[in-house]
Amino acid sequence: MREVRIGLIGFGNVGREFVRQLLAREHIIAERFRVRFNIAFIADSRGVLYGTPTIRRDLLEKALNVPRGAVSSLKGGVRGESACSAVEKVRPEAVVEVTPSVYDLNTPALENVDVALENGADVVLANKAPLALRYEYFMKRAASLGCRIFFKACVMAGTPLVDFIMYGLRGREIGSLVGILNGTTNYVLGLIEDGLNFREAVKRAVVEGYAEPNYATDLEGIDLAAKASILYSLSMKPISINDVIIENKIDESVEEIVKNARSKRLKVKYVAVLLRNEAPRVKLVTLSEEDIMARVKGVQNCVKIRTLDESEILLMGPGAGRRVTALTLLSDLLLSVHKIWGGGNQAWKK
Ligand SMILES: NC(=O)c1ccc[n+]([C@@H]2O[C@H](COP(=O)([O-])OP(=O)(O)OC[C@H]3O[C@@H](n4cnc5c(N)ncnc54)[C@H](OP(=O)(O)O)[C@@H]3O)[C@@H](O)[C@H]2O)c1
Question: Which of 97, 174, 227, 330 could form a disulfide with 155 if both were Cys (CB 3.0 to 4.6 A apart)?
């Protein structure tokens, strides 16, 4: 049995579900892959919980029941300790980074990833910020240190788009990619099409749990821009979120656009558009009702990829949700253990 020591940074919705799924699937993973993941530390915003040397199942179960920000109040916890100190002390083989996606160079996630790589750990991300801000830097840094970064949970978290591009399309070039990659805005647009006004639609999306209370990053196109930048970096050339042009936001003006489109039997979708040799864009597009992408409902995600060999490929599936995101993190951890390369550009492979 291969025993793998991991560190978990972030213990909110996704971090906790990751632990739940790890506990629930321990036997399956051991049986099928002869691997056991042992969590050596969990960090939240207020401190770190350490194991001796890894955190036992009963303590993990207790941790799942403590309130936010209180993981270090348990036995083995160190209040005020930072995630980076934990990485340096424990030197885990892999670090799972699931702190909030904040697109600011001061976000602690950047240092978390840097320190993890410097200490020889592979990094598994659901947090989009490190690669949206500094894709090229991190990929080169990982390659030079002999580590890998896995990020399937950052875009279309429940559908293996990143693996598809990285492994499935290896050796082929993507000419264009159009994606519905933000479930919240697709859901809100759907409600506006059903006749609700913008404010009512957003309110309903929050009440039904399809929009976070802090939904501005979705409606302003920032989440979509982050995903666009990661996909562009992966499949075309490395850029930053700041290079993405946000043409439209989802606001009151959308009501009129939807109304006009409806009168022409067209559907409005909020998409990321990636064209080789052009800056990626986040914008509203109108599609014919027959277009498969026009039929993508609610929080579903969908991408249409056109390769330079003129194939059109469509991938559709869940984009987010804590359960599928946690399972995707587990999948990436298994890729890390199996030494399946996780860099974002073949040229950087060591
Ligand atoms: N939810 C999804 O379906 C989904 C899907 C794909 C990707 N993602 C991404 O996954 C990440 C996590 O999402 P989430 O919904 O789990 O967020 P969340 O519930 O807000 O949890 C974030 C966690 O990070 C911790 N944290 C904040 N700053 C920290 C720091 N400096 N050091 C250590 N821990 C810190 C928080 O600590 P406290 O507990 O102390 O507040 C909290 O435990 C985000 O980047 C999100 O964009 C989410």
Answer: 227
